[in-house]
Design goal:
The structure is a single chain. The chain is 70% helix and 9% strand. The chain is of the alpha+beta class. Strand 4 and strand 5 form a beta hairpin. The two termini are 73 Å apart.
């Protein structure tokens, strides 16, 4: 127990020391400005990353860092102001973060980060102003609201520079359905922003503000491409580049009016981009969820289709076996009758067997084309048996091209069923002539079949009233589409080689 406590204290002391050195380095460095106050961001980032049991060490570390930074000005500011201001702001921010988490749960949503940043920036600015007027030794002048606003904007931008990176880190293991890679696009955005920054440093005062505004463009592009993650990277990138263009005077209250105007615009833009990025990310998540649900439904439909076909194949095989047994018994019966002198009865049985055996076998093959896998789709469609079946309803003129072995046997069977359903539907709606064109092929990892059914006259209204429900159900289950246009029905199906067919968009 004691070893665990000592280890925890040691980790806390190390954490507080590292935080104190980081805070002190940022505060006294030439990087931090009133218009871009990074210690405010470091403050909130540390509270979000570190467990609450170690917050006391962070508070002590910040107090030590501020005391070191202000030690040389104790005579100017007064001991009371230096000590109180060193131990006041961090606890205030900790209370805000804790109350915010207690009311709204863990802070992981980008829009809630904006609310937290605005609340912390406003409250710390007011607290610092109160401390200056209440405790500072030298007589303060009237409140400079412009300077206070500048400090508040700088704190807000400093927080927005740090917090998005924390949020990205906390959600680094989450999956995102964006089609592009963030790292590659972020690298391109950084290069573009760096190029604009270099040009801005070489440009005159008149062109500098315009170039500063252009630094926001890569952030907007990243937001559109990657949602809130793109906004997080883009805002940090643009914010840092813009801050580097501000003129340094090495004095307190460093003010660059032109840069302040642009940073106000950047603060508004950053808020809008992070909000927009959050909505884009939510949209992509919803689309991805719907896509997964649709893919699951199609997978269930495909399995149902395969199961029904397997059951039909089994039943056809059983019937074929039974019919073979029946015809074998008829053959034996005819032979037995002939041996006992009943030649006329034997001949009648033989004629019945010969007349019906092939017809029943053909009907069973039409019910389930068991030879489709061996002969292929086109060979099955060209057989006299299939032509006779369809020819009983309407006249079929076929134009079959390509290699039907390019598509899987499962897809060939599906195409066969769809054609059977569609031609039956055309026959029901009194279309007596049908032109059937089909082409199979393979390109890369995909293979597919395109089919067009053409009739001489316009489709009867009944075809839309009856609907191609069976055909559409099979096609959609295998990732395809059916379209009607004028006198044609288009069917297009694709599949990944060796996998189940994938959805394809059919040109309308």
């Amino acid at each position: 127990m004691m070893e665990h406590l000592l280890g925890r204290v040691a980790r806390g002391v190390v954490l507080g020391t590292v935080y104190a050195l980081s805070f002190w380095a940022l505060r006294v460095s030439n990087i931090t400005l009133d218009q871009w106050y990074l210690p405010a961001g470091l403050r909130v980032a540390a509270l979000l990353l570190v467990p609450r049991s170690y917050w006391l060490y962070l508070i002590a570390g910040e107090a030590a860092g501020i005391l070191c930074a202000r030690y040389s000005r104790i005579d100017e500011y007064g001991l009371t102001f230096v000590v109180v201001s060193s131990i006041t702001i961090m606890p205030l921010v900790a209370v805000i973060v804790r109350s915010f988490e207690k009311r709204n749960g863990l802070i992981v949503e980008p829009q809630r980060i904006l609310m937290l940043a605005a609340l912390v920036a406003a409250s710390t600015t007011l607290a610092n102003t109160g401390l200056v007027f209440g405790l500072m030794r030298k007589e303060p002048g009237p409140v400079d609201w412009t300077n206070s606003f500048q400090v508040m904007v700088g704190a807000y931008l400093g927080i927005l520079t740090m917090i998005p990176l924390v949020l990205l880190w906390k959600q680094r293991a989450a999956s995102y359905p964006f089609p592009r890679r963030l790292r590659a696009d972020a690298a391109i955005g950084i290069v573009a922003t760096l190029g604009v920054f270099i040009i801005a440093e070489l440009a005159g005062p008149a062109e500098k503000n315009m170039l500063r505004m252009l630094m926001i463009v890569p952030a907007a592009v990243l937001t559109v491409l990657h949602g809130w993650r793109g906004a997080a990277v883009g805002v940090v990138m643009s914010n840092t580049a813009l801050a580097m263009t501000i003129h340094r005077t090495h004095t307190d209250g460093n003010t660059d009016p032109d840069a302040l105007r642009v940073q106000i615009i950047l603060a508004i833009t950053a808020t809008v981009l992070i909000t927009l990025g959050s909505r884009i990310s939510r949209y992509y998540r919803n689309v991805n969820a719907y896509g997964l649900a649709e893919a699951k439904a199609l997978e269930i439909a495909r399995k149902s289709f395969v199961s029904s076909e397997q059951e039909l194949e089994r039943r056809v095989a059983d019937l074929q076996f039974v019919m073979d047994e029946v015809f074998a018994k008829l053959h034996d019966a005819g032979k037995w009758l002939r041996q006992r002198g009943h030649a006329e009865a034997a001949l009648e049985i033989q004629n019945y067997r010969v007349a019906n055996e092939q017809r029943i076998k053909d009907e069973l093959r039409l019910t389930y084309p068991s030879d489709l896998a061996e002969r292929g789709l086109f060979a099955a469609l060209r057989t006299d048996m299939v032509a006779g079946k369809w020819g009983g309803h309407c006249r079929i003129n076929s134009d079959l091209r390509g290699d039907d072995n390019a598509i899987s046997p499962q897809l060939q069977l599906m195409v066969y069923r769809v054609l059977d359903d569609l031609i039956a539907l055309l026959a029901i709606t009194e279309h007596e002539q049908v032109k059937l064109r089909a082409r199979c092929g393979r390109r890369g990892e995909r293979s597919g079949v395109a089919i067009c059914l053409t009739v001489p006259a316009q489709f009867q209204r009944a075809i839309f009233e009856v609907g191609d429900l069976d055909a559409s159900g099979r096609v959609l289950a295998y990732g395809g589409r059916i379209r009607h246009r004028n006198r044609r029905i288009f069917l297009f199906m694709v599949e990944q080689n060796g996998t189940a067919p994938a959805a394809a968009t059919v040109p309308g």
